[in-house]
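A sample copied in:

***
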Amino acid sequence: MFSAPSLSRCVPIAILVGTLLSLVNQGTVIASGDATAATWWRVLFNYLVPFCVSSAGFFSCRRAAWRTGTR
């Protein structure tokens, strides 16, 4: 999950998707200055979920390549 090939692919995806989700879901709350600790936890999860999903996809693809002997 934290190997260099995984991070180089999954972190940019998490940043892009997490930022978009945060803007859509929490943007007005943050912009109005009414963000609470719960808001920031939601923002954190907006980044963690896409990272986990893209990591799962990355390793699923890698595992399939390892099983077939291709890279």
About this structure: Residues 8 and 24 are 25 Å apart (CA to CA).
